[in-house]
Amino acid sequence: MTGARRLRLSRGAARGFTLIELIVAITIIAIASAAVAISMGRSGDSDLEREALHLASVLETARAEARAASLDVRWMPDGKDGGSYRFTGLPPDLIDRLQLNRSWLGEPPVVDIQGATANGRSVRLGPEPLIGAQRILLTRGDHRMTVSTDGLGPFRVQRGSATP
Questions:
Q1: How far does CA 159 lie from the centroid of its chain?
Q2: 16: containing domain
Q3: What tens digit of pLDDT does each residue of 17-50 get?
Q4: What residues contact 38, with CB distance under 8 A and at least 6 apart?
Q5: Which positions ≥6 away from 60 have C-beta within 8 Å?
Q6: Cis peptide before 127 (omega within 30 of 0)
Q7: 12 & 56 share domain
Q8: 110/7 Cα distance (integer angstroms)
Q9: Does residue 143 share a domain with residue 78?
C-alpha cells in the first residue's frame, strides 16, 4: 500500500464518536438535568426564604427608626386581605418614603406571631433597645421559615420553626 492510500483509510475510519466520548457526553447531560431538577424542586422553599429575608430587612429598618425617634412601633399582617402587612406608630410620610407597608412578594404565607406582645397579632419594635424575644413563623404549604430576634440582636431567618 502506498502512503496516500493508508492516509485515506485512516481518515475514513475516524468517523463518529467513541464509546468513551458518548459516555462522557451522557454523564454531563445527566448531571445538568439533575441540577435543574433539584433547583426546581426547592423553588417553594427558596421563595419563602426570600420572603423571610425581605421581612427581616424591613423589620430592622422600622426597628432602627423606632429607636431613633423613641416611638412605639408595631408590625402586623394586614387582616383585611392577608396579602400585605403594615406598621403602626411611625409617621405616614416615613412609612411612604421607606416603603414599609407592603404586599408579600408572592402568595401570602400563613403568619404565626409568638413572643412578647400583648395580643399575639403584632411584633413590637421599639422604642426601647431591648424589645423581648419574638418570632414570626411563616408557612406556605409544606415550607416553613422563622424570622426571630432574642430582643437585643437583629432579626434573623431560620428554616423551620427553631426557637429564637
A1: 10
A2: 3-41
A3: 788 888 888 888 888 888 877 766 555 567 888 8
A4: none
A5: 154, 155
A6: yes
A7: no
A8: 73
A9: yes
Residue 19's identity, in one-letter code, is L
The answer to whether the pTM exceeds 0.85 is no
Percent residues over pLDDT 70 in the chain = 78
Q: Which residue has cell 425617634? A: 69
- DSSP string of 57-90? HHHHHHHHHHHHHT---EEEE-TTTSSEEEEESS
Question: For residue 123, what is its C-alpha cell?
Answer: 411584633
Cell, residue 11: 481518515
Say how many domains are in the chain.
Answer: 2
What is the pLDDT at residue 144?
92
Assess whether 102 and 118 both reside in one domain.
yes
Predicted local confidence at residue 8, as pLDDT: 54
Identify residue 145 by its one-letter amino acid code.
M
Contact 64, 154 (CB under 8 A): no
Cis peptide before 108 (omega within 30 of 0): no
On whether both 32 and 87 belong to a single domain, the answer is no
Do 11 and 81 belong to one domain? Answer: no
- Which residue's C-alpha cell is 404565607? 109
